From TrEMBL:
Residues 62-72 have a biased composition (Basic and acidic residues). This is PROTEIN GRAVITROPIC IN THE LIGHT 1. It comes from Salix viminalis. One of its GO terms (biological process) is negative gravitropism. Residues 392-446 form the GIL1/IRKI C-terminal domain. Residues 76-200 form the DUF641 domain. Residues 52-72 are annotated as: Disordered. It holds the Pfam family GIL1_IRKI_C. InterPro entries: DUF641_pln (IPR006943), GIL1-like (IPR040225), GIL1_IRKI_C (IPR056813).
Length: 452
Protein backbone atom coordinates (compact mmCIF):
# COMPACT_ATOMS: atom_id res chain seq x y z
CA UNK A 1 0.00 0.00 0.00
CA UNK A 2 1.36 3.37 -0.99
CA UNK A 3 2.15 5.96 1.51
CA UNK A 4 0.86 9.42 0.75
CA UNK A 5 3.08 12.15 1.92
CA UNK A 6 1.50 15.51 2.65
CA UNK A 7 3.23 18.64 3.05
CA UNK A 8 2.72 20.78 6.04
CA UNK A 9 0.04 23.38 5.53
CA UNK A 10 0.31 26.85 6.82
CA UNK A 11 -0.99 27.54 10.30
CA UNK A 12 -4.24 29.11 9.09
CA UNK A 13 -5.01 26.08 6.95
CA UNK A 14 -4.21 23.76 9.82
CA UNK A 15 -6.77 25.60 11.96
CA UNK A 16 -9.49 25.24 9.28
CA UNK A 17 -8.68 21.54 8.96
CA UNK A 18 -9.04 21.03 12.67
CA UNK A 19 -12.42 22.79 12.59
CA UNK A 20 -13.74 20.62 9.80
CA UNK A 21 -12.47 17.55 11.58
CA UNK A 22 -14.31 18.63 14.69
CA UNK A 23 -17.57 19.10 12.77
CA UNK A 24 -17.17 15.73 11.09
CA UNK A 25 -16.60 14.10 14.50
CA UNK A 26 -19.69 15.82 15.94
CA UNK A 27 -21.86 14.71 12.99
CA UNK A 28 -20.58 11.18 13.38
CA UNK A 29 -21.42 11.26 17.12
CA UNK A 30 -24.87 12.65 16.33
CA UNK A 31 -25.61 9.83 13.92
CA UNK A 32 -24.47 7.26 16.46
CA UNK A 33 -26.55 8.84 19.23
CA UNK A 34 -29.54 9.10 16.96
CA UNK A 35 -29.24 5.46 16.07
CA UNK A 36 -29.10 4.59 19.77
CA UNK A 37 -32.16 6.72 20.52
CA UNK A 38 -30.18 9.34 22.42
CA UNK A 39 -30.83 13.04 21.79
CA UNK A 40 -27.68 15.15 21.37
CA UNK A 41 -27.30 18.93 21.61
CA UNK A 42 -25.04 20.17 18.72
CA UNK A 43 -22.95 23.27 19.15
CA UNK A 44 -20.85 24.77 16.34
CA UNK A 45 -17.75 26.85 16.92
CA UNK A 46 -19.65 29.92 15.79
CA UNK A 47 -22.30 29.47 18.53
CA UNK A 48 -22.10 31.72 21.50
CA UNK A 49 -21.91 29.81 24.80
CA UNK A 50 -24.11 32.12 26.80
CA UNK A 51 -26.77 30.75 29.24
CA UNK A 52 -29.77 31.69 27.07
CA UNK A 53 -28.42 29.91 24.02
CA UNK A 54 -27.60 26.81 26.12
CA UNK A 55 -31.12 26.62 27.64
CA UNK A 56 -32.75 27.20 24.25
CA UNK A 57 -30.62 24.67 22.46
CA UNK A 58 -30.86 21.87 25.08
CA UNK A 59 -34.54 22.16 26.04
CA UNK A 60 -35.77 19.35 23.72
CA UNK A 61 -33.14 17.06 25.24
CA UNK A 62 -34.65 17.50 28.83
CA UNK A 63 -38.22 16.69 27.66
CA UNK A 64 -37.02 13.46 26.06
CA UNK A 65 -35.27 12.32 29.23
CA UNK A 66 -38.37 12.93 31.36
CA UNK A 67 -40.53 11.01 28.92
CA UNK A 68 -38.14 8.07 29.02
CA UNK A 69 -38.11 8.06 32.80
CA UNK A 70 -41.91 7.99 32.87
CA UNK A 71 -41.93 5.17 30.34
CA UNK A 72 -39.44 3.23 32.43
CA UNK A 73 -41.54 3.66 35.59
CA UNK A 74 -44.72 2.66 33.76
CA UNK A 75 -43.02 -0.39 32.35
CA UNK A 76 -41.74 -1.44 35.78
CA UNK A 77 -45.20 -0.91 37.27
CA UNK A 78 -46.75 -3.06 34.55
CA UNK A 79 -44.18 -5.78 35.20
CA UNK A 80 -44.92 -5.71 38.96
CA UNK A 81 -48.67 -5.91 38.32
CA UNK A 82 -48.13 -8.86 36.04
CA UNK A 83 -45.95 -10.44 38.72
CA UNK A 84 -48.73 -10.08 41.34
CA UNK A 85 -51.32 -11.46 38.94
CA UNK A 86 -49.12 -14.50 38.31
CA UNK A 87 -48.58 -14.89 42.06
CA UNK A 88 -52.31 -14.78 42.86
CA UNK A 89 -53.07 -17.18 40.00
CA UNK A 90 -50.53 -19.66 41.41
CA UNK A 91 -52.09 -19.40 44.89
CA UNK A 92 -55.55 -20.08 43.43
CA UNK A 93 -54.13 -23.07 41.56
CA UNK A 94 -52.66 -24.42 44.81
CA UNK A 95 -56.05 -24.06 46.52
CA UNK A 96 -57.73 -25.96 43.69
CA UNK A 97 -55.10 -28.71 43.84
CA UNK A 98 -55.51 -28.97 47.62
CA UNK A 99 -59.30 -29.27 47.19
CA UNK A 100 -58.72 -32.10 44.70
CA UNK A 101 -56.38 -33.72 47.22
CA UNK A 102 -59.08 -33.60 49.90
CA UNK A 103 -61.86 -35.00 47.76
CA UNK A 104 -59.59 -37.82 46.57
CA UNK A 105 -59.43 -39.09 50.18
CA UNK A 106 -63.09 -40.15 50.24
CA UNK A 107 -63.57 -42.33 48.31
CA UNK A 108 -59.86 -43.11 48.34
CA UNK A 109 -58.12 -42.84 44.94
CA UNK A 110 -54.34 -43.14 44.83
CA UNK A 111 -54.15 -41.82 41.23
CA UNK A 112 -56.11 -38.68 42.03
CA UNK A 113 -54.07 -38.13 45.20
CA UNK A 114 -50.78 -38.38 43.30
CA UNK A 115 -52.01 -36.05 40.55
CA UNK A 116 -53.22 -33.45 43.05
CA UNK A 117 -49.99 -33.73 45.05
CA UNK A 118 -47.90 -33.25 41.90
CA UNK A 119 -49.96 -30.19 40.95
CA UNK A 120 -49.24 -28.62 44.36
CA UNK A 121 -45.52 -29.38 44.03
CA UNK A 122 -45.40 -27.88 40.51
CA UNK A 123 -47.05 -24.67 41.59
CA UNK A 124 -44.72 -24.34 44.59
CA UNK A 125 -41.73 -24.78 42.29
CA UNK A 126 -43.02 -22.03 40.02
CA UNK A 127 -43.48 -19.72 42.99
CA UNK A 128 -39.94 -20.48 44.15
CA UNK A 129 -38.52 -19.70 40.68
CA UNK A 130 -40.56 -16.50 40.55
CA UNK A 131 -39.14 -15.44 43.90
CA UNK A 132 -35.56 -16.13 42.79
CA UNK A 133 -36.00 -14.13 39.57
CA UNK A 134 -37.52 -11.22 41.45
CA UNK A 135 -34.71 -10.89 43.97
CA UNK A 136 -32.03 -11.29 41.28
CA UNK A 137 -33.78 -8.72 39.08
CA UNK A 138 -34.03 -11.25 36.29
CA UNK A 139 -37.73 -10.90 35.55
CA UNK A 140 -38.24 -11.22 31.81
CA UNK A 141 -42.00 -10.82 31.61
CA UNK A 142 -44.23 -9.44 28.93
CA UNK A 143 -46.84 -7.64 31.08
CA UNK A 144 -49.72 -8.05 28.64
CA UNK A 145 -49.09 -11.73 27.95
CA UNK A 146 -48.39 -12.52 31.60
CA UNK A 147 -51.60 -10.80 32.74
CA UNK A 148 -53.68 -12.72 30.22
CA UNK A 149 -52.09 -16.05 31.11
CA UNK A 150 -52.55 -15.37 34.82
CA UNK A 151 -56.24 -14.55 34.27
CA UNK A 152 -56.72 -17.77 32.28
CA UNK A 153 -54.96 -19.82 34.99
CA UNK A 154 -57.04 -18.23 37.75
CA UNK A 155 -60.31 -18.88 35.94
CA UNK A 156 -59.32 -22.48 35.27
CA UNK A 157 -58.45 -22.98 38.95
CA UNK A 158 -61.74 -21.44 40.04
CA UNK A 159 -63.61 -23.73 37.67
CA UNK A 160 -61.80 -26.72 39.18
CA UNK A 161 -62.75 -25.57 42.69
CA UNK A 162 -66.39 -25.07 41.69
CA UNK A 163 -66.46 -28.46 39.99
CA UNK A 164 -65.12 -30.09 43.17
CA UNK A 165 -67.71 -28.24 45.27
CA UNK A 166 -70.50 -29.36 42.95
CA UNK A 167 -69.23 -32.93 43.11
CA UNK A 168 -69.17 -32.82 46.90
CA UNK A 169 -72.69 -31.36 47.04
CA UNK A 170 -73.93 -34.02 44.63
CA UNK A 171 -72.41 -36.69 46.87
CA UNK A 172 -74.15 -35.11 49.88
CA UNK A 173 -77.44 -35.01 47.98
CA UNK A 174 -77.00 -38.66 47.03
CA UNK A 175 -76.31 -39.54 50.65
CA UNK A 176 -79.35 -37.59 51.82
CA UNK A 177 -81.42 -39.26 49.13
CA UNK A 178 -80.29 -42.64 50.41
CA UNK A 179 -81.21 -41.62 53.97
CA UNK A 180 -84.60 -40.38 52.80
CA UNK A 181 -85.19 -43.66 50.98
CA UNK A 182 -84.27 -45.62 54.09
CA UNK A 183 -86.53 -43.49 56.29
CA UNK A 184 -89.39 -43.83 53.81
CA UNK A 185 -88.93 -47.57 53.87
CA UNK A 186 -89.02 -47.56 57.67
CA UNK A 187 -92.13 -45.37 57.58
CA UNK A 188 -93.84 -47.72 55.15
CA UNK A 189 -92.90 -50.70 57.31
CA UNK A 190 -94.22 -48.95 60.43
CA UNK A 191 -97.43 -48.04 58.60
CA UNK A 192 -97.87 -51.60 57.41
CA UNK A 193 -97.22 -52.89 60.93
CA UNK A 194 -99.77 -50.45 62.38
CA UNK A 195 -102.32 -51.52 59.80
CA UNK A 196 -101.73 -55.16 60.65
CA UNK A 197 -102.18 -54.37 64.33
CA UNK A 198 -105.34 -52.44 63.55
CA UNK A 199 -106.68 -55.38 61.56
CA UNK A 200 -105.88 -57.73 64.41
CA UNK A 201 -107.57 -55.44 66.91
CA UNK A 202 -110.58 -55.00 64.69
CA UNK A 203 -110.69 -58.71 64.07
CA UNK A 204 -110.73 -59.28 67.81
CA UNK A 205 -113.66 -56.95 68.34
CA UNK A 206 -115.11 -54.98 65.45
CA UNK A 207 -117.96 -52.59 66.24
CA UNK A 208 -119.92 -54.03 63.37
CA UNK A 209 -120.56 -57.10 65.48
CA UNK A 210 -122.89 -54.98 67.63
CA UNK A 211 -124.99 -53.75 64.72
CA UNK A 212 -127.27 -56.76 64.45
CA UNK A 213 -126.74 -58.33 67.84
CA UNK A 214 -129.81 -59.25 69.82
CA UNK A 215 -130.17 -58.33 73.45
CA UNK A 216 -130.86 -61.92 74.33
CA UNK A 217 -127.53 -63.01 72.79
CA UNK A 218 -125.40 -60.56 74.77
CA UNK A 219 -122.51 -62.26 76.63
CA UNK A 220 -119.20 -61.30 78.37
CA UNK A 221 -117.26 -61.80 75.12
CA UNK A 222 -118.96 -58.72 73.72
CA UNK A 223 -117.89 -56.76 76.77
CA UNK A 224 -114.26 -57.84 76.33
CA UNK A 225 -114.31 -56.79 72.66
CA UNK A 226 -115.65 -53.33 73.45
CA UNK A 227 -113.26 -52.98 76.40
CA UNK A 228 -110.29 -53.39 74.01
CA UNK A 229 -111.88 -50.79 71.73
CA UNK A 230 -112.20 -48.41 74.69
CA UNK A 231 -108.63 -48.93 75.90
CA UNK A 232 -107.26 -47.92 72.49
CA UNK A 233 -108.80 -44.46 72.89
CA UNK A 234 -107.47 -44.27 76.45
CA UNK A 235 -103.91 -44.98 75.32
CA UNK A 236 -104.21 -42.43 72.49
CA UNK A 237 -105.31 -39.77 74.97
CA UNK A 238 -102.47 -40.64 77.35
CA UNK A 239 -99.89 -40.35 74.56
CA UNK A 240 -101.30 -36.93 73.61
CA UNK A 241 -101.26 -35.81 77.24
CA UNK A 242 -97.63 -36.89 77.71
CA UNK A 243 -96.62 -35.06 74.51
CA UNK A 244 -98.28 -31.90 75.81
CA UNK A 245 -96.35 -32.33 79.08
CA UNK A 246 -93.07 -32.64 77.19
CA UNK A 247 -93.85 -29.54 75.12
CA UNK A 248 -94.56 -27.67 78.36
CA UNK A 249 -91.16 -28.91 79.69
CA UNK A 250 -92.60 -31.06 82.45
CA UNK A 251 -90.36 -33.40 84.39
CA UNK A 252 -92.06 -36.66 83.35
CA UNK A 253 -90.23 -38.70 85.98
CA UNK A 254 -91.28 -36.32 88.76
CA UNK A 255 -94.88 -36.30 87.49
CA UNK A 256 -94.94 -40.13 87.47
CA UNK A 257 -93.56 -40.23 91.01
CA UNK A 258 -96.31 -37.83 92.12
CA UNK A 259 -98.90 -40.42 90.97
CA UNK A 260 -96.95 -43.52 92.11
CA UNK A 261 -94.70 -42.32 94.96
CA UNK A 262 -93.41 -45.83 95.71
CA UNK A 263 -90.04 -46.79 94.22
CA UNK A 264 -91.06 -48.70 91.11
CA UNK A 265 -88.34 -50.26 88.95
CA UNK A 266 -89.12 -49.55 85.27
CA UNK A 267 -87.58 -51.73 82.58
CA UNK A 268 -87.50 -48.69 80.26
CA UNK A 269 -87.95 -44.95 80.84
CA UNK A 270 -90.85 -45.02 78.37
CA UNK A 271 -92.73 -47.36 80.71
CA UNK A 272 -93.52 -44.39 82.93
CA UNK A 273 -96.41 -43.71 80.56
CA UNK A 274 -98.15 -46.70 82.19
CA UNK A 275 -98.37 -44.64 85.37
CA UNK A 276 -100.37 -41.95 83.55
CA UNK A 277 -102.49 -44.60 81.85
CA UNK A 278 -103.22 -46.10 85.25
CA UNK A 279 -104.29 -42.70 86.58
CA UNK A 280 -106.56 -42.00 83.58
CA UNK A 281 -108.22 -45.44 83.71
CA UNK A 282 -108.77 -45.23 87.45
CA UNK A 283 -110.36 -41.78 87.12
CA UNK A 284 -112.53 -42.60 84.10
CA UNK A 285 -113.77 -45.93 85.53
CA UNK A 286 -114.40 -44.64 89.03
CA UNK A 287 -118.06 -45.26 89.91
CA UNK A 288 -118.34 -47.61 86.95
CA UNK A 289 -120.86 -49.98 88.61
CA UNK A 290 -123.05 -47.12 89.89
CA UNK A 291 -125.46 -45.57 87.36
CA UNK A 292 -125.73 -41.78 87.30
CA UNK A 293 -129.50 -41.89 87.15
CA UNK A 294 -132.30 -43.99 88.50
CA UNK A 295 -132.06 -47.65 87.66
CA UNK A 296 -133.61 -48.67 84.34
CA UNK A 297 -134.07 -52.01 82.68
CA UNK A 298 -131.16 -53.83 81.05
CA UNK A 299 -132.87 -53.53 77.68
CA UNK A 300 -133.00 -49.72 78.07
CA UNK A 301 -129.25 -49.54 78.72
CA UNK A 302 -128.58 -51.80 75.75
CA UNK A 303 -130.57 -49.56 73.43
CA UNK A 304 -128.75 -46.50 74.78
CA UNK A 305 -125.48 -48.31 74.17
CA UNK A 306 -126.39 -48.99 70.55
CA UNK A 307 -127.26 -45.31 70.04
CA UNK A 308 -124.03 -43.89 71.39
CA UNK A 309 -121.47 -46.51 70.36
CA UNK A 310 -120.93 -44.97 66.91
CA UNK A 311 -122.31 -41.46 67.34
CA UNK A 312 -120.28 -38.28 66.83
CA UNK A 313 -119.80 -37.14 70.44
CA UNK A 314 -119.52 -33.43 69.61
CA UNK A 315 -122.77 -33.42 67.67
CA UNK A 316 -124.49 -35.50 70.33
CA UNK A 317 -123.49 -33.08 73.11
CA UNK A 318 -124.53 -30.08 71.02
CA UNK A 319 -128.05 -31.49 70.66
CA UNK A 320 -128.17 -33.03 74.15
CA UNK A 321 -126.29 -30.65 76.50
CA UNK A 322 -128.22 -31.87 79.57
CA UNK A 323 -127.97 -35.59 78.89
CA UNK A 324 -126.37 -38.10 81.23
CA UNK A 325 -123.42 -38.38 78.84
CA UNK A 326 -122.94 -34.59 78.90
CA UNK A 327 -122.93 -34.55 82.71
CA UNK A 328 -120.53 -37.51 82.77
CA UNK A 329 -118.16 -35.77 80.31
CA UNK A 330 -118.08 -32.49 82.27
CA UNK A 331 -117.54 -34.24 85.61
CA UNK A 332 -114.74 -36.50 84.33
CA UNK A 333 -112.88 -33.69 82.54
CA UNK A 334 -112.85 -31.47 85.62
CA UNK A 335 -111.78 -34.45 87.74
CA UNK A 336 -109.06 -35.69 85.38
CA UNK A 337 -107.56 -32.40 84.17
CA UNK A 338 -106.65 -30.33 87.22
CA UNK A 339 -106.74 -26.54 86.92
CA UNK A 340 -102.99 -26.25 87.55
CA UNK A 341 -102.31 -28.91 84.94
CA UNK A 342 -104.46 -27.17 82.31
CA UNK A 343 -102.87 -23.80 83.03
CA UNK A 344 -99.39 -25.33 82.75
CA UNK A 345 -100.14 -27.15 79.49
CA UNK A 346 -102.07 -24.41 77.68
CA UNK A 347 -101.18 -21.21 79.56
CA UNK A 348 -104.79 -20.48 80.54
CA UNK A 349 -108.01 -22.01 81.88
CA UNK A 350 -110.19 -21.29 78.85
CA UNK A 351 -111.17 -24.93 78.27
CA UNK A 352 -112.11 -25.36 81.93
CA UNK A 353 -114.24 -22.22 81.86
CA UNK A 354 -116.09 -23.42 78.76
CA UNK A 355 -116.77 -26.84 80.29
CA UNK A 356 -118.04 -25.24 83.50
CA UNK A 357 -120.38 -23.03 81.46
CA UNK A 358 -121.84 -26.03 79.62
CA UNK A 359 -119.91 -25.43 76.36
CA UNK A 360 -117.48 -28.01 75.00
CA UNK A 361 -114.15 -26.70 73.60
CA UNK A 362 -113.04 -27.44 70.06
CA UNK A 363 -109.39 -28.41 70.58
CA UNK A 364 -107.35 -31.49 69.74
CA UNK A 365 -106.78 -32.21 73.42
CA UNK A 366 -110.46 -31.98 74.39
CA UNK A 367 -111.60 -33.88 71.28
CA UNK A 368 -109.28 -36.76 72.24
CA UNK A 369 -110.70 -36.69 75.76
CA UNK A 370 -114.26 -36.54 74.39
CA UNK A 371 -113.75 -39.64 72.23
CA UNK A 372 -112.33 -41.50 75.22
CA UNK A 373 -115.27 -40.37 77.38
CA UNK A 374 -117.77 -41.56 74.75
CA UNK A 375 -116.25 -45.04 74.67
CA UNK A 376 -116.06 -45.30 78.47
CA UNK A 377 -119.67 -44.17 78.76
CA UNK A 378 -120.72 -46.71 76.12
CA UNK A 379 -118.81 -49.43 78.00
CA UNK A 380 -120.66 -48.38 81.14
CA UNK A 381 -124.01 -48.70 79.36
CA UNK A 382 -123.00 -52.11 78.00
CA UNK A 383 -122.12 -53.31 81.51
CA UNK A 384 -125.58 -52.34 82.81
CA UNK A 385 -127.11 -54.24 79.90
CA UNK A 386 -126.15 -57.55 81.49
CA UNK A 387 -128.60 -59.26 83.75
CA UNK A 388 -125.71 -60.25 86.02
CA UNK A 389 -123.88 -57.91 88.35
CA UNK A 390 -120.83 -56.16 86.91
CA UNK A 391 -118.04 -54.97 89.23
CA UNK A 392 -114.53 -53.51 88.90
CA UNK A 393 -111.50 -54.59 90.90
CA UNK A 394 -107.96 -53.29 91.40
CA UNK A 395 -104.92 -55.39 92.32
CA UNK A 396 -103.08 -54.25 95.42
CA UNK A 397 -99.42 -53.33 95.31
CA UNK A 398 -96.87 -56.09 96.01
CA UNK A 399 -99.38 -58.86 95.28
CA UNK A 400 -97.99 -61.96 93.65
CA UNK A 401 -98.77 -62.35 89.98
CA UNK A 402 -101.77 -64.57 89.19
CA UNK A 403 -102.72 -65.66 85.69
CA UNK A 404 -106.34 -65.95 86.75
CA UNK A 405 -106.87 -62.34 87.72
CA UNK A 406 -104.05 -60.52 85.91
CA UNK A 407 -102.03 -60.14 82.77
CA UNK A 408 -98.76 -58.23 82.45
CA UNK A 409 -99.11 -54.98 80.52
CA UNK A 410 -95.62 -55.47 79.03
CA UNK A 411 -93.47 -58.52 78.32
CA UNK A 412 -90.07 -56.82 78.49
CA UNK A 413 -86.94 -58.13 80.17
CA UNK A 414 -88.10 -56.87 83.56
CA UNK A 415 -90.22 -59.99 83.72
CA UNK A 416 -87.05 -62.08 83.82
CA UNK A 417 -85.46 -61.99 87.25
CA UNK A 418 -81.83 -63.18 86.99
CA UNK A 419 -81.33 -62.51 90.70
CA UNK A 420 -82.65 -65.41 92.73
CA UNK A 421 -83.17 -63.06 95.72
CA UNK A 422 -85.75 -60.99 93.83
CA UNK A 423 -89.36 -61.78 93.02
CA UNK A 424 -91.88 -60.24 90.61
CA UNK A 425 -94.71 -58.41 92.30
CA UNK A 426 -97.44 -56.05 91.18
CA UNK A 427 -96.16 -52.49 91.16
CA UNK A 428 -99.51 -50.93 90.19
CA UNK A 429 -102.67 -51.67 88.22
CA UNK A 430 -102.76 -50.13 84.75
CA UNK A 431 -106.23 -51.35 83.70
CA UNK A 432 -108.64 -52.61 86.36
CA UNK A 433 -110.26 -56.01 86.03
CA UNK A 434 -113.97 -56.75 85.72
CA UNK A 435 -116.28 -59.41 87.02
CA UNK A 436 -119.53 -60.16 85.20
CA UNK A 437 -121.35 -62.63 87.35
CA UNK A 438 -118.80 -65.43 87.77
CA UNK A 439 -116.76 -64.43 84.71
CA UNK A 440 -113.47 -62.71 85.45
CA UNK A 441 -111.91 -60.31 82.93
CA UNK A 442 -108.22 -59.99 83.80
CA UNK A 443 -106.74 -56.73 85.01
CA UNK A 444 -103.57 -55.41 83.37
CA UNK A 445 -100.74 -54.82 85.83
CA UNK A 446 -97.17 -53.57 85.73
CA UNK A 447 -94.72 -55.97 87.37
CA UNK A 448 -91.57 -54.97 89.16
CA UNK A 449 -88.88 -57.05 90.93
CA UNK A 450 -88.75 -56.73 94.70
CA UNK A 451 -86.34 -58.24 97.22
CA UNK A 452 -87.49 -61.35 99.00
Amino acid sequence: METVKCRSLPNNKSKIARTFQKVINLKTATRIASNNGIGVCLLTPQDKFDQDDLNTTCKPQNRTDNHKQKDARAKRRAILEALLAKLFASITAIKAAYAELQIAQNPYSSDLIQAADQAVVDELKQLSELKRSFFKNELHLSPEVTMMLAEVQEQQSLMKTYAITIKKLEADVEGKGSDIGSLKKQLDEAGAFNKSLEKRLNASGPLSMFDNIQFSLLNPTHFVQFLHYTLRSTRSFVKLMVREMEVAHWDIEAAAKAIQPENTVFAKPSHRCFVFESFVNKTMLEGFNHPNEEHRSENYYFNEFRKIKSVNPKQFLTHNPDSSFARFTRAKYLQLVHAKMECSLFGNLNQRKLVNSGVFPDSAFFNAFLEMARRVWALNLLAFSFCEDVSVFQVSKNCRFSDVYMEAVTQDSVLETPNSDSDLRVAFTVVPGFKIGKTVIQSQVYLSPVSS
